[in-house]
Amino acid sequence: MEKLIITIAPTGNVPTQAMTPHVPITPLEIAEDLIACYEKGAAVAHIHARDAEGAPTCERIYFAEILRLLDEAGCPIVTQISTGARGGTSGEARAEGLELRPLSGSLSTGSSNFPASVNANEPKLVEYLAKTMLEQNIKPEIEVFDAAMIHNAIRLQKEGLLKGPLLFNFVLGVKGSLPATPKNLFFLYDSLPPDAVWSVSVIGPQHVNLSVMAMALGGHVRVGIEDNIYYSKGVLATNEALVERIAAIANAMGRELAGPEDVVRIWGR
Ligand code: MG
To answer: Cα separation of 42 and 224, whole Å?
Structure first.
């Protein structure tokens, strides 16, 4: 079986240090946490930025500082910049971080609900972000909150706005979106085009079980405080511990970990 890519999503847009002291917020905190997670086996960093007040932002200066700190430390982790809906409304605002030419950017190919807001990605905006990534040779990771997003991505590929093999991340367990169940995982897995590369990102108490199922199916895994502030019932997570646990499970399953140098090959970029 292919080596396992562990993606670390340390911050997201929702967790605050009032909710958990372990969430990195400033560029320095984020970079230091990513370096520690890389050392535990994470190969990809899914990065959201926060402004000086800790609010979600897609402003280029914050992403630039995180990338600069990683670079300065010589950390080779593959960087993926979020273009998610909570970071801004216009396509231009959400694409700002892409100007930094990360290897990858996130791309939601449809709309869904977050617990208290809309994950708004209208067709025109999706096309704009896809085109921006295509022109800059940035690998889009398609964030799948709903099966329609897989089919939308296949259509965008036919229209020449996405290049195959497509890279998907199934997001399961967001309140208002697809629940984190094995049935939903298998349904999405069955809906993939044949050459797809995919991972899961599971929110809530099923995150370990469904991550292990994905690993057994040949999928990859994303972990991090963006998705789960809890490591287990009542125990707050650290990003490092979440990476370490998946790395240990992979080891027990006999699946080697991918390093950043393997990612480009596995993604077929
Ligand atoms: Mg995200």
So the answer is: 10
